């Protein structure tokens, strides 16, 4: 369980995190989504006691991070996979952490196997690791103490598609076993696949929050037919708001409503689905454009 | 998976933090090389002295003095590296998440650096003993005062390294400062006559002289404490405050 209440961080006149509140329940994966510089990492550092909040706070399993007994056994944290001494081997990184957490060397070998780092790879120095391997090592370190809560900052960054698939399975199993997962990303599709709930932030504020299905449904219904022009006019006649998307239409109604009209008027549908990520993607892109440097330049 | 929180005091037991910090000091090439270089420097100086030096000075005391000469300069670097590692390599993101009570990590680092220094010193003394047997005068003329004084002086230097490391949280800056600043100060106090009096009290190199020679008396202790307070405790206090309050990124 992670509870975040009115968490705020100001640096001088700049507000990096602006009064955010949300909860991550056991058994669920929450995607913390936002463009670069939105305040995700700052928020996660505040949750783990590395950055003092200006106001508000966070509790994990009912306690603030600094109150936790042996935090490594309760909360698995990976904030930056690249923040490792390049001269240590992957196995040594985990062994040092194991000493601090108080778990056995056998557990180190267990998590190495769990994240798919081979014996040879574990013996290599981190300097020679690819970003994907560093991510696996970071996830191994987070899992080392068999925690109940995972806080992962951009864990999919640098993973190949197969690696992302693997991580999705790993986090799903962790949550299905009663674990609590908060993971951040600046890529919508990455998070969309694995998360149950989404918290979207931009410029330090929460701009959208809710279950993934609910947020996706806000995107309306996507429909594509052999004759989109006719379908659009039929929908308009039925007083259903409709907009043209790249290939097809986005309709602000349930798929059933659209399907019935199409069936009645014998329009051949090629595709009909709830929401799709377009709405969310658009919102996310809008957010990115509004807050990113590219947006300023445009 | 249980849903109850682990009961117990915040953080982890200090013994585990200390073990982890000790391990981190010797599990990288740079850490191991530091120790090899220090041992090699002591060994080379000893070998050179035994072969070419004046034979009558090659007593145990003379050889221990020689072997510890490079250590006085190099041991503080162990302290610096222990203190700065979390920040230069950003491993603090892991270390301070596993033990959020940073003061304990700082204490563990200081103790680990001191322990490692004692090991290096023991090796240097063993090498001096060997040199004494092989090519020295064979006199065992190190008094308890000299032995204790040497250990204390070197440990003060190591702690100074830790203090400067914590103060700057940057390895090169801290190493240069710990080597150069005391020397600059030392030159200033001898060159500028008005600083001479201050220098007698606030020059760590001068006040540890009697300590190495095993003839500490009266005011010497007061001078040592004063110098150590300014050159070690003050940066240690400011540096620790910095580490406790700094944002870990």
UniProtKB/TrEMBL annotation, chain A:
GO MF terms listed in the record are: ATP binding
Q: Which CDD domains match?
A: ABC_BcrA_bacitracin_resist
Q: Which keywords label this protein?
A: ATP-binding, Nucleotide-binding, Transport
Q: Which InterPro entries match?
A: AAA+_ATPase, ABC_transporter-like_ATP-bd, ABC_transporter-like_CS, P-loop_NTPase
From what superkingdom does this record's organism come?
Answer: Bacteria
Q: Quote the SMART domains the UniProt record gives.
A: AAA (SM00382)
SUPFAM superfamilies the UniProt entry points to: P-loop containing nucleoside triphosphate hydrolases
Where would I find the ABC transporter domain in this sequence?
2-228
User: Which family, according to the similarity comment?
Assistant: Belongs to the ABC transporter superfamily.
Query: What name does this protein carry?
Result: ABC transporter ATP-binding protein
Q: Please give the organism.
A: Nocardioides potassii
TrEMBL record, chain B:
Bilayer-crossing residues are 33-52, 64-85, 106-130, 142-159, 166-188, 221-244
The molecule here is called ABC transporter permease
**What domain of life is recorded for the organism?**
Bacteria
Alphabetized UniProt keyword annotations: Membrane, Transmembrane, Transmembrane helix
- Per the UniProt entry, what species is this protein from, by scientific name? Nocardioides potassii
